[in-house]
Amino acid sequence: MSQTLSNLFLSIGKPVKDEYGRSVGKIVCFATSPSGKFEAAFIEQSDGRFTKQPIDYFIFNGADVTFLSKVKSRAAVFYDQIPFIWRKDKALKDLLEKKKILQVHYLELHNSFTTVLSQLRKDAQILIDEAIQGMNRCEEELTTLSYSILYLELEHEIGKIADDTYRASFAQLQETIKRTTAEKADMESVKSKLSNILLGDVQPIAEPKLPEQKSKIYAESVPQSSDLPEPPVVVYVKEVGKAGI
């Protein structure tokens, strides 16, 4: 949030757009904690329904209010948390190998890390499924848009649609294609990054050999994962006359 907290109330009644420029609705009011901290915003959606969204999903910049992608915002947390816990578990192993911690302490912390990682993996997989659903939705929308342009071109060609109307409609369709293509690329990136992170943890990790001393134990090593997103899919539409963007 780029606005100060005292100015957020000035956003009430302001239009909200998503990060791709599409209309979401308008802010009706805010939910605050007893200490006055902004926790959520109530949005009247474009279809008249109301929803409550966490304040962290918004960017306030003067009169402009942007609603961030839920999938991208939630995925960013996993990008940090899962590798961080892996590093802590590896550090625990290093300490044990240096005989700086006791076996009982290792087991306690290692089991704790394992439990947390297991839950994070489940949550990340759910988010991957949501990203796939988003990709499919965008792909369906792009298919519909391609047919819209087809029929627009056809009707204009036979003189059913005036030039001015044609150019305005074509420009609007092109802009929508750009937005949908950008969203699809973001969903693909989320899926790829989360999948790569999880792939780094699916291989079985051998438990370390324990030393003769009963007071110490070794931690497991953690493989590193690559973080290479899949390339975005770009949809090109033929530019016609002066209507192209």
Structure description:
This protein is of the alpha+beta class. The protein contains three helices and six strands; from the N terminus they run ββββββααα. It has helices at residues 70-97, 103-157, 163-199, and strands at residues 15-18, 23-32, 38-45, 50-54, 58-61, 64-67. Helix 1 runs antiparallel to helix 2 and helix 2 (103-157) runs antiparallel to helix 3. The radius of gyration is 25 Å and the shape is elongated. The two termini are 32 Å apart. The model is unreliable at 202-245 (pLDDT under 50).
Describe this protein with a few key phrases.
245 residues, alpha+beta, SH3 type barrels, 2 domains, 6 strands, elongated, disordered C terminus
Write the layout of secondary structure elements.
Layout: E1 15-18, E2 23-32, E3 38-45, E4 50-54, E5 58-61, E6 64-67, H1 70-97, H2 103-157, H3 163-199
Parallel strand pairs: 1-6
Antiparallel strand pairs: 1-2, 2-3, 3-4, 5-6
Number of domains: 2
In spatial order, strands of the major sheet run 4-3-2-1-6-5
Proportion of strand residues: 5-15%
Tally of strands: 6
Q: Which structural class best describes the helix and strand composition?
A: alpha+beta
Average predicted local confidence, pLDDT: 83
Order of helices and strands: EEEEEEHHH
Question: Radius of gyration over alpha carbons?
Answer: 25 Å
Give the count of helical stretches. Answer: 3
Distance between the amino and carboxyl termini: 32 Å
Unreliable residue runs: 202-245
Helix content: 40-55%
